[in-house]
Every structure is written in C-alpha cells, then in structure tokens.
Amino acid sequence: MTKSLVKPSNILLTLKQNNEDNVTTIKQLYNARYTYKRSLRGSRTELQQLMMLLECDNYIHWSRCHEYSEVVSDIFWTHPDSVKLLKAFSIVVLMDNTYKTNKYRLSLLEIVGVTSTGLTFSVAFVLLSTERENNFIWTLQRLKGLLFRGDVYPQVIVSDRDLALMNAISVGFPEATNILCRFHMNKMLKPNVKCSLILGRHETL
User: Fold this and answer.
1) Among 8-12, 35-39, 69-73, 150-154, which stretch is predicted with the lowest mean pLDDT?
2) How many CB atoms lie within 10 A of CB 3?
3) Which of 123, 175, 112 is nearest to 147 (CA)?
4) Among 30, 97, 163, 185, which residue has the fewest nearby CB atoms (within 10 Å)?
C-alpha cells in the first residue's frame, strides 16, 4: 500500500478492518514505511535516491552546490506535462514558501500556474538552502529557461511579502507585475487589527 501511495492513516485503518485483533500503532506503521523505503534505495543516500527517481521518471531538474564545495544547496524540478501547461498558461504565476516540511529544515518553494478557466496546476518545486535573493534569482532563471521563447513570460506574479523574493522577481521578470497574496495579507493584518481594536476599546473605557 505504501508503494501505491496510500496514506499511513488509511493503511492503518485497512489493517484494523481486516483484522480486529490487530494492535499496530501509527508509530509502528511509520517505522515500517521508513524501513521499506530505505531498503529500496540500498546504499544510495536520500539525495542520490531523489536524483535517480527524477531521472527515471523523466523530470526536468537542476541543482547547484555551495561555492567551493560539493554540498547541494538548491534543487529545482518539474514534470514535462507541467512545462506544457506553463507554456499554454503563463500569464499568472503564484509563488509561496512552505516551512518545516522536511527533516533538513529546507524551505520548499512551490510555483503554481493558473489556467484560463481559473484552475491551478503545479509548475515546479524548489528546495532552497536559504531564502536569500541569490537563491530566488537562481530559481527564476530556471523558471525562465522552461519557457524558451523570449516573448512568453508571466505578466502577473503573486507572492507573499518576502522582500528577497520580491527583489528577485523584479530582476528575473522586470516586465511582470508583482502583487501580494490576499490570504497572506489578511493573515498579517488580522493580529494587528485585533490589537488596535483592543487598544481603542481601552482608550474609550
């Protein structure tokens, strides 16, 4: 079931449905999954396993190392079908970082496109060692390389208020309009508005 990408919670539920006396815990299940995945990669490191899988599944990918070392700092990957969609629908692109998604504490930048009917699709994923302007510029250069044609670039790029990313967008796609995500804006404003209301209430009293 792990090989078929079944979620751990669903695996555990299936085990218990098939055997009422089954006392397997979710922790035991995660340990068994880890052992199984480790057996698949053999002597390869997790990074070597990732690179091998990207190659086997014909993903387009780039990586780079820290200066003067062989330690990988950033990895960019995308599926060929995502590239086809990007070329057809390149007007609006969304970018957002996700934190604490892996044990390496690397931020995962997800790039998302929007079709003419308002549906979204994954364009690419990037593991970043740091969230500096240089890392984002490298990422946007890879994104630009997917489009090939010089006259087909995103016209609108939606992001949160990450100044390093915003600066990189102005460098990588100077013709694009960078707007802030409404969800992130509301998330930032809500605590401040609440605080202001509380202070105003105290002043009134």
Assistant:
1) 150-154
2) 8
3) 123
4) 163
Bridge partners, 158 (sequence order): 94, 179
pTM, rounded to two decimals = 0.73
CA dihedral in degrees (36, 41, 43, 46; nearest 10)?
-100
pLDDT attached to residue 182 = 65
CA 205/CA 148 separation, integer angstroms: 63
Distance CA 72, CA 13 (A): 39
Contacts of 153 (CB under 8 A, 6+ apart): 90, 144, 147, 173, 175, 176
Structural domains of the chain in order of their starting residue, each with its CATH number: 8-42 (no CATH), 68-188 (3.30.420.10)
> Is 60 exceeded by the pLDDT of residue 195?
no
User: Mean pLDDT in the chain?
Assistant: 84
Task: Return the axis-axis angle of helices 26-41 and 8-18, rounded to nearest 10°.
Answer: 110
